[in-house]
Amino acid sequence: MSRIVRIAAAQSGPVPRSESRSETLDRLILMMRQAAQQGADLVAFTECALTPFFSHWWIDDQQELDSYFENAVPGPSTQILFDEAKRLEIGFHLGYAELADTEEGVRHFNSSILVDATGSVIGRFRKVHLPGHSEHRPDNPFQNLEKRYFDVGDLGFPTWRGFGGIVGMCICNDRRWSETYRVLALGGAELIILGYNTPDHIPEHPELDRLVDFQHQLCMQAGAYQNGCWVVAIGKAGVEEGVSQIGLTSIIAPSGEIVAQSTTLEDELVIFDCDLDATRVYKDAMFNFKANRTPEYYTAITEQKDARLP
Ligand code: CDT
Fold first, then answer.
1. Contact 110, 99 (CB under 8 A)
2. 267-289, pLDDT tens digit by residue?
3. Where are the domains of the chain?
4. Staple partner for 46: which of 30, 213, 234, 287, CB 3.0–4.6 Å?
């Protein structure tokens, strides 16, 4: 049996601060049209796809900071994406900065949505693992201020039925945490979609620079294999406002193999026919959770005194 979903991972090249929101949307719409022309069921855009990745510089003025956020999606600037997707009968995934009016007040989230081919929102996710720091580090070549600009996502790691299977989302740094994949897979995820903005230099740990590409792939390949999931990872690429980002947009099979990857540092579509039934051999055999996981023993082990961290 096969359940094929043709996925177009739409890598973004640099988005300069001088580019207007509608110019950036034009780039996304062009890629959406190209994806539809190539028969894609789903086009997936990156983390904070509507703007440059503003966590890379210090912003003092709240109004200026809020200008990078969307009050509602669909909303005035993004309705055009929904209309075009509906016209083309293609689903999409979009990462964006979300300004949310919650019961606890206004919150800033690093969010993504999943939209089906009729233009209806299937799912919403808010990034849980926020990297970086909250204070200004003027001696660094660039900032990583997600801990200052965003609140921790409050929706957990839900999964949804869509595109003939079960789909989950996470965002960028979430991909480095094994819990992300396991919680999504416990929710039945067969396909995990994530966008990212990953610099090729870590100011605080330059000794890790040589490993950035390797560790980007390592965590996703392991997450895909150990959970029998497809992982579709869509990057920002190239030098954006002085920050060089890795690209390496990738589609990873449940075997853990990278089956398609970007080759440029620009806007680029990476397309692959993902067979959701290719998850079965892993989910039903090697990583059959029901037959093989023993959570009651994991708890017993971590509760043993000797096993505790100092
Ligand atoms: N956007 C985002 O989460 N970026 C982080 C940078 C971490 S620097 C080690 C990432 O995990 O790619």
1. no
2. 999 999 999 999 999 999 999 99
3. 4-284
4. 234
Handedness of CA 244, 245, 247, 252 (dihedral sign): positive
pTM comes to 0.96
Residues near 68 by Cβ (< 8 Å), separated by ≥ 6? 48, 51, 54, 97
Given a contact cutoff of 8 angstroms between Cβ atoms, the answer to whether 230 and 192 are in contact is yes
Q: Which of 172, 180, 213 to mutate to test the pocket of ligand 1 (most atoms within 8 A of CB)?
A: 172
Q: Which atom of ligand 1 approaches the CA of 53 most closely?
A: 1
Q: Catalytic residues, which ones?
A: 47, 127, 172
Residue 218 has pLDDT above 70, yes or no: yes
Does the beta carbon of 173 lie inside 6 Å of ligand 1? Answer: yes
pLDDT tens for 158-198 read 999 999 999 999 999 999 999 999 999 999 999 999 999 99
Is the minimum distance from the CB of 131 to ligand 1 under 6 angstroms?
yes
User: How many angstroms is it from 18 CA to the middle of ligand 1?
Assistant: 24
Domain 4-284 matching CATH 3.90.1010.10: the answer reads no
261 bridge partner residues: 250
Quote the pLDDT of residue 158: 98
Q: Write out the two tokens for 157.
A: 């790691």
Tokens linked to 307: 């096993």
Which is nearest to 231 in space by CA: 263, 261, 211? 261
Q: What is the pLDDT of residues 78-94, one digit of tens each?
A: 999 999 999 999 999 99
Residue 31 Cα to ligand 1 midpoint, Å, equals 25
pLDDT recorded at residue 279: 98
- Taking the CA of residue 198 as reference, the ligand 1 atom at the shortest distance is 12
172 CB within 6 A, ligand 1: yes
